# Entry
Amino acid sequence: METNRLSPTLAATLNAQMTNEAHNSQIYLAYASWADDKGYGGIANFLFRHANEERNHMMKFLEYILKRGAKVVITEIPGPGADPVSVNDCFEKVFKYEVENTTKIYDIVNMSMAEKDWATWNFLQWFVKEQTEEETLALGLLDKIKVAGGENAKDDALYVLDKELATTPDDATLAQDVTVEKP
Ligand code: OFO
# Structure
């Protein structure tokens, strides 16, 4: 009896996305280690927390594939690439990777819609929202570093930014959660 509820194409794509999320976790881990090595403990703390988030995303894909009766395929995880060259470069890269991941999620949403696999479509909506949040967060970080002077940010501005990031929450407020009283 056939118990697999995912098409071969979707199963392969969801497996690839699972590895992608693990790859993103490696990137955050590498950038966090770079930041810590440079003396930015607050930025490192923020990035280490995000490495965990990406790892959680990986687990969500893994569980979903299993729960739909398909096979999970664990492969090697690609390396994170070169270290950032500055705090500004670090945040620009974080934003770029988040946008790239959003595009990947949207592609799978399109595939699930084309297949009329509404369970997968529904599962992916969590990630659509999550990516909106993460892009908002990354954009907020880019704004902060821009205000601090971007590539030319001075040590005292970076010191303040570093302190702030140690306690910056993991989640950004989404536009749909804003009210007149709480803009
Ligand atoms: Fe997995 O959330 Fe961003 O990339």
Notes: The chain has a mean pLDDT of 95. The pocket of hydroxy diiron-OXO moiety is lined by residues 21, 24, 54, 57, 98, 101, 130-131, 134 (CB under 6 Å). The CA atoms of residues 39 and 162 lie 9 Å apart. The chain has one domain: 8-74+81-172.
